C-alpha cells in the first residue's frame, strides 16, 4: 500500500542493507555505467562528420542533463528500489511498471553479455593468446561475469567499492588524453568543420544519434534506492554530478581525438584512442589505453550486474515479478535475481563465441536498445502523472515547471528513439509484446494466491 505525505509518494520499502551506498559510490555507478567501451570507439565513428560532431555531443549532453534533473526529482518523489520501474509504476500503474521492469531487466543482462565480450576483446589486445583462441576468450568473459556476480551477492557495499575503484582507474587514461592531449592538437584538423557532405543540421543530428548510446545508464543511481544513504539528497546529486563529469570527459576526449589524428586516419581506426595515445606517447600509450579499456569494461560490467539484481528485486516486492526475485541472501542481497540474470548473460556470451551464432547475438543486443530508451520517455512525464493520480493538479509555478521539464525530456526521448532506427523500434516493440503473457501469468498467480489466503482465513 502506498501512503502519501504532502507532495511525496512513499511506497513500502525493504530495509536498507548495512554499508549502504553514499554519494561517491552512487556517482561512480552513474559514471561507471555510462563510460564503458563506447568512448574508446566513438571517435572513429564521429570522424566522418568532422569537428561539427562536437555539436552532436553538445545536444545529447543537454538532453542527458535534462533527464538527470528529471530522475533526480523523481528520486525525491518515489523513494524505493527499482529506479525507472518504480517511477513508471507509480505514475502509470502496474502494467506500465511491469513493461518497463521487463524490458529494462532484459536490457541489463543482455548488456552484461555485450560488455563481457568487449572485455575479452580488450584483454586479447594485451594477451595475444586470448585473442587467438575462442575458448580462452570465452573463459575470460565468463570468469569476469561470475567474479562480479559473487562480489555483488556478497554485498552492496563490496560492489560499490569495486565501482568506485574501477571508475577512478578508468578515468585516469581518459583524463590524461582529455587534458594533456590538447598540447598535441593540430589546428589543421579543424579547418574543415563539416566533412560529412550533409547540411550542418543533418550532420549534427547524425552525430548526435551516434552519441545517444553513450549516455545510457544515467539513471543508474536511482535503481538501488533502498541501499542508498539519504536517497532524497544523494541520488539527485549523484545523477547530475555523474552526467556532468561524463559529458566533460566525452567532449574533451573527442576534441583531442579529432585534433590529434587526421580525419581520414581516425575514421578508419579500429582503436581510435589507442591511436591517439600512440601518437602522443608512443607504443606505451597504446598499452595504457588498452589497460584503461579493460578496467572500463570491468567497471561497467560490475555496475550493470548490481542493477541486474536491484530491478527485478524491486519489482518482486510489488508482486510485479515472481516472488523468488524478492528473496534476500544472508548478505542482504537479491542473490536469486543476480544469479539468474548472469546465467542468461553467460548463455548469450557462449552463443557469441559459438561459431555461426554471432548474428543471433547481435539481434538480441538490438532488441535491448529500445528497452533502454523507452523508460526515459515514460519517466519524463511520470511526475506529472503522479500529480494527476494523487489529485494535486492545481496550477502554479511548480506544476508549470514540472510540465516544461517533462515535455523537454519526453521530446528528447522521442528523438532518441527515432534516432535508433526503424528496425530497433520494430524489434523493441516485439520485445514488449513478448512480456505481456508473463505479466498475465504473474497476475493470475497473485490472484489465485489471494483467493487461497481468503479461503484459509474463512476456515479459521
UniProtKB/TrEMBL annotation:
GO terms for molecular function: transmembrane transporter activity. It is a multi-pass membrane protein. Keywords: Cell membrane, Membrane, Transmembrane, Transmembrane helix. One of its GO terms (cellular component) is plasma membrane. Pfam families: AA_permease_2. The chain crosses the membrane at residues 20-42, 54-75, 95-123, 135-155, 161-185, 201-218, 238-261, 281-298, 333-354, 360-386, 398-418, 424-442. The keyword rRNA-binding does not apply. It is found in: Cell membrane. Belongs to the amino acid-polyamine-organocation (APC) superfamily. Basic amino acid/polyamine antiporter (APA) (TC 2.A.3.2) family. This is Arginine/agmatine antiporter. It comes from Pseudaminobacter soli (ex Li et al. 2025).
Amino acid at each position: 500500500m502506498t501512503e502519501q505525505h504532502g507532495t511525496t509518494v512513499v511506497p513500502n520499502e525493504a530495509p536498507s542493507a548495512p554499508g549502504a551506498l553514499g554519494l561517491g559510490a552512487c556517482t561512480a555507478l552513474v559514471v561507471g555505467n555510462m563510460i564503458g567501451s563506447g568512448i574508446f570507439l566513438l571517435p572513429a565513428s564521429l570522424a566522418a562528420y568532422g569537428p561539427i560532431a562536437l555539436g552532436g555531443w553538445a545536444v545529447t549532453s543537454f538532453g542527458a542533463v535534462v533527464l538527470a534533473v528529471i530522475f533526480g526529482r523523481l528520486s525525491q518523489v518515489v523513494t524505493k528500489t527499482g529506479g525507472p520501474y518504480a517511477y513508471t509504476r507509480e505514475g502509470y500503474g502496474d502494467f506500465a511498471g511491469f513493461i518497463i521492469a521487463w524490458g529494462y531487466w532484459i536490457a541489463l543482462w543482455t548488456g552484461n553479455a555485450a560488455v563481457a565480450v568487449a572485455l575479452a576483446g580488450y584483454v586479447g589486445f594485451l594477451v595475444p593468446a586470448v585473442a587467438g583462441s575462442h575458448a580462452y576468450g570465452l573463459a575470460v568473459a565468463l570468469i569476469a561475469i561470475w567474479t562480479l556476480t559473487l562480489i555483488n551477492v556478497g554485498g552492496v557495499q563490496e560492489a560499490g567499492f569495486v565501482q568506485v575503484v574501477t571508475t577512478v582507474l578508468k578515468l585516469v587514461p581518459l583524463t590524461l588524453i582529455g587534458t594533456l592531449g590538447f598540447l598535441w592538437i593540430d589546428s589543421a584538423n579543424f579547418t574543415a568543420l563539416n566533412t560529412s557532405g550533409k547540411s550542418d543540421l543533418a550532420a549534427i543530428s547524425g552525430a548526435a544519434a551516434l552519441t545517444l548510446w553513450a549516455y545510457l545508464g544515467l539513471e543508474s543511481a536511482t535503481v538501488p534506492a533502498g541501499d542508498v544513504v539519504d536517497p532524497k539528497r544523494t541520488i539527485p546529486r549523484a545523477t547530475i554530478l555523474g552526467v556532468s563529469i561524463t559529458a566533460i570527459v566525452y567532449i574533451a576526449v573527442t576534441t583531442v581525438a579529432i585534433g590529434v589524428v587526421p580525419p581520414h586516419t581516425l575514421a578508419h581506426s579500429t582503436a581510435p584512442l589507442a591511436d591517439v595515445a600512440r601518437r602522443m606517447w608512443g607504443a606505451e600509450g597504446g598499452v595504457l589505453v588498452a589497460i584503461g579499456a579493460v578496467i572500463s569494461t570491468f567497471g561497467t560490467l560490475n555496475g550493470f550486474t548490481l542493477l541486474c539484481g536491484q530491478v527485478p528485486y524491486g519489482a518482486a516486492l510489488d508482486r510485479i515479478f515472481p516472488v523468488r526475485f524478492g528473496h534476500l541472501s544472508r548478505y542482504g542481497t537479491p542473490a536469486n535475481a543476480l544469479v539468474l540474470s548472469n546465467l542468461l548473460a553467460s548463455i548469450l556470451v557462449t552463443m557469441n563465441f559459438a561459431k555461426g551464432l554471432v548474428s543471433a547475438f547481435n539481434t538480441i543486443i538490438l532488441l535491448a536498445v529500445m528497452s533502454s530508451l523507452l523508460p526515459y520517455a515514460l519517466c519524463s512525464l511520470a511526475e506529472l502523472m503522479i500529480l494527476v493520480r494523487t489529485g494535486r493538479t492545481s496550477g502554479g509555478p511548480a506544476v508549470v515547471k514540472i510540465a516544461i521539464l517533462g515535455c523537454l525530456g519526453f521530446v528528447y526521448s522521442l528523438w532518441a528513439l527515432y534516432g535508433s532506427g526503424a528496425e530497433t523500434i520494430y524489434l523493441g516493440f516485439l520485445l514488449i509484446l513478448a512480456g505481456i503473457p508473463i505479466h498475465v501469468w504473474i497476475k493470475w498467480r497473485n490472484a489465485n494466491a489471494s483467493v487461497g489466503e481468503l479461503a484459509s482465513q474463512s476456515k479459521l
